[in-house]
Write a structure and sequence with these properties.
Length: 264
């Protein structure tokens, strides 16, 4: 997941930078100062490509998710090459259930990819990207909610553990968008605005550290109130005293009774 995310980060910003670079390549050798200014002004040209990409994901990718052509073909092949009459009900259920397993390792990076595009262009070209991004996330919420409620058969429950992976990447995408905005302002010689907006990446980092300190470590363990109430309920049932082992943390060699040789 981490490698896929870094690949998507590189993909987004390589597309943004490369399109602007090829446009100003001729000016770079004749007038480098003007080329830098033109490079910043042409950053918004990749917004049209990003809008088309998001629209394709929204209008083609999400219907494909509803159709699930891959599992549909596998089910068709399963019915051809397997004889359902020779299979038990449990085997049938387990085989069909494996075709409806959610794939968060692919779903989350796709959502993060669109989010990074929106974060990169939220200030440079908001009228192009933000409505398309809102359309995509609105349709994604409807599609994936339907899939989770009526189709997916999860193999395990994570208890919200994916959130600890997703949140740092969301904040990292926001920080990358801030750096792109600062670079754009520098190329347009907007030094005062750049200086005023410089704390934005630092604010994102401080917010991340705050969530780590305030919620991450505490949510990994049971609260003291719940632990005390649980111990009290066990104590009332005399389960603690029955299961308590006083030598649990001692070395086994120290608690093993002495063994003497048998006399012949």
């Amino acid at each position: 997941c981490r490698r896929f995310f870094m690949y998507q980060i590189a993909n987004v910003y390589v597309v943004i930078v490369s399109q602007s670079f090829w446009i100003v390549l001729d000016t770079l050798f004749t007038n480098p100062t003007q080329a830098i200014s033109d490079f910043g002004s042409k950053l918004a040209t990749a917004a049209s490509y990003c809008c088309q990409l998001i629209l394709t994901k929204a209008l083609v990718g999400l219907p494909m998710e509803l159709l699930r052509i891959g599992p549909l073909l596998l089910t068709f092949l399963f019915r051809i090459f397997q004889n359902p009459k020779l299979m038990t009900s449990r085997e049938k259920r387990s085989t069909i259930a494996t075709l409806s397993i959610p794939e968060p390792e692919w779903t989350y990076p796709t959502l993060l990819y669109v989010f990074m595009i929106c974060a990169a262009y939220e200030m440079i070209a908001p009228l192009f990207v933000m409505p398309v991004g809102a359309l995509y996330f609105g349709l994604s919420g409807i599609v994936y909610k339907f899939q989770v409620l009526f189709l997916y058969s999860p193999r395990y429950e994570t208890g919200g553990q994916f959130w600890y992976i997703i949140l740092p990447r969301i904040l990292f995408g926001i920080a990358c968008g801030h750096f792109l905005l600062l670079s754009y302002l520098l190329t347009q010689l907007k030094y005062l605005q750049t200086l005023f907006l410089c704390p934005l990446p630092l604010i994102v980092y401080l917010f991340y550290r705050y969530t780590q300190y305030k919620y991450f470590y505490h949510s990994q363990q049971i609260s003291l109130d719940l632990a005390r109430a649980f111990d009290a309920s066990l104590n009332n049932n005399n389960k603690i005293s029955d299961s308590f082992v006083s030598d649990l943390y001692k070395q086994p060699a120290l608690v093993t009774p002495s063994v003497f040789p048998e006399e012949n």
